[in-house]
Amino acid sequence: MSATTLSQNTHYIHFILPLIKIYYKLDTLLASISTTNNNEQQLIFIAVEHNNRKRHFLSVTFDELSKLLHCLEPPKLTLYEILCRNKSCKLYFDVDVYIENTFLINIQESLSTLQNLFHYIISNCTDSITYHSASIADHFLVLSASTELKHSYHLIYTNTIVRFDSQQTVLKFILTILQYCTHFILSHSCHQHFLQSISIHHENNPNNWLKHLQTILTNTNFCNCVIPATNITCNNFQKLLFKNSNGFYQWIFDLHVYNKNQQFRLYKVTKFGKHNPLLTTSSVSFNGQNERKNEMLIDKTINYDSILSHALISYTVNNTNLLIFSFNENKWSLLDQHENRIVDLTTKTYFTTLIISKTSPNETNALKRIPPTNTTDLANNTDHFKSFITNLITKIYHTNAYIRSCQRGTNNPSLLFYNIGGEFRFCERLQRHHQSNNTCIIVDTSTCKYQIKCKDPDCKNFKPPWKHIS
C-alpha cells in the first residue's frame, strides 16, 4: 500500500468497504482520480473527520455512500461532501445564526423569502422551464442541525435540471441578485431621505452594501414596495438580514462556503464530538409529495436514498437534460444539454434587468427618482389585467362568466388571483370545461403571464402552464 493511502483494514471504513482507498491528502486523491477514472462525474468525493479535526479522503459511488451512512453510527458518522471545482453543482445556502441574534426576525419567514426569491428568478432566467411548480417546497430541500443555541440550515435547490458549472458561479449568481435588490432599495425614493448620495455600481463587496442598508434600518424598516423583476417586497428582503451582537447587520446565510474544494456536511451526519445530525425538518417540509410521493416514501417509510440524492450538491444521476449556468469572461450563459445549445443570457431582457452596470451620475440620479411602487398602488393599476381576464372568459372561451373577486398574493405580491363565477369552468388538465367546478385565473404582474387553475379535487396536484398575456 502506498504511503499516500492508509493501509487496508486500518480504518473503520474498511470494515464496511474493504477495498476502498483512503488518502491522507485531498490533492493526492484528486490527482489519482483524474488520471485513472473517466467516470469522475459519477463519483462522490468524501472527507472523513476524526480526532483533532483531522480528515482523511476517499471517493465513493452513490451506493457505497448510502451503505456508509446506513452502517456508520456516531461518533464515526462524520462525513463531508467535497465540492470540486470541475464538477457542476446545485444552488445551495448555509444558514448559521445564533438564536440570540434573531429575536427580531422569524427564521422560517426568512428561509421562505430566500427560497421564493431565488426559485422565482431562476424560473424566469430559464424561460419558465422550471416555473410550473406551485410550491417552492417542490424545489428546495431544507436540512436542519439546529440546536437550542443556533439556527443551522442547509438549503439545497433540488430542481432536477438546473445546475451551475461551479460553486464559484453559484456565489457570483447569488451576489448578482443581492446587488440588484440592494441597488433598488438604495435607489428607491421611499428611502432616499435617509441616505446621502450613494452609488454601489462600482462596489463588489457585499459588506459595503450592508453598511448602506444599515443606514436605512437605523431609522426605519424597508418599505412594502415590490422589487421589480422579483416576487418579494423591500420589506421581505429585510428578512434576509439579522443584527449581530455588535449591532451590525449581516446576511442570514454564509457567503464563505463557495470556495474551491469546499467541504459540506452530509445528510444524517454530525460534526465530530457533536450530537446534532443534519436531518429533514418538520418546520420547513420538503413536500414534493405531489410528484415525489412514491419516490420519497416506500411502504410508508422514508426513502433515505432519495433524500440523500437530493441532498448531494455535486452529484447528478444520469441526467442529459441539464440547464447549466456559467459565468466566463464577464458573460453569463446557459448550456441547454437537451437541445445542445448555449443561450447567451446577456441577450435576455429579464436577465439583463438584474445586472447592475456602471452608470453615469445622471443615470444614478434618475434611478433615485424612481417613484414608490407600493403594493397598494399596484392594486389600483390592474385595469389592464381585469380587462384581459374579462375578454378571456367571455369572448375567447365564449362563456357567460364574470370576475367574482380579485386578491393579491400574501407571500408573493406580484400575483393576482381572479376567482371566476358563472359558466367558466375550463380545465387545463382535461382541455375542456367541467360540469361543475370553480376556477381561478392567476396573473403574474411581473412577467405578464397567467395560468388557469382548476379547483376540482381531481386537479389538485396538476400544475397548469403559464401563458403570455397578449
In short:
The chain is an alpha+beta fold.
Secondary-structure blueprint:
Blueprint (H helix, E strand, L loop, with lengths): L25 H11 L7 E6 L5 E6 L1 H10 L7 E5 L8 E7 L8 H19 L14 E5 L5 E8 L4 E3 L2 H21 L18 H12 L16 H5 L2 E3 L5 E3 L10 E4 L13 E2 L8 H8 E2 L2 E2 L1 H8 L11 E6 L2 E6 L4 E4 L4 H5 L7 H8 L6 H5 L3 H14 L4 E8 L6 E8 L3 E2 L4 E2 L5 E6 L4 E6 L12 E2 L2
Parallel strand pairs: 7-14
Antiparallel strand pairs: 1-2, 1-3, 3-10, 4-6, 5-6, 5-11, 8-9, 12-13, 14-15, 15-16, 17-18, 18-21, 19-20, 21-22, 22-23
Helix pairs in contact: 4-5
What is the 3D shape? globular
Unreliable spans: 129-135, 287-300, 359-381
Give the rounded overall mean pLDDT.
81
Rg is 25 Å
The order of strands across the largest sheet is 17-18-21-22-23
Count of individual helical segments: 12
How many domains in all? 3
Helix content: 25-40%
Count of extended strands = 23
Structural class: alpha+beta
GO molecular function: chromatin binding; DNA-directed DNA polymerase activity
EC number: 2.7.7.102, 2.7.7.7
Catalytic activity: DNA(n) + a 2'-deoxyribonucleoside 5'-triphosphate = DNA(n+1) + diphosphate; ssDNA + n NTP = ssDNA/pppN(pN)n-1 hybrid + (n-1) diphosphate
InterPro entries: PRIMPOL
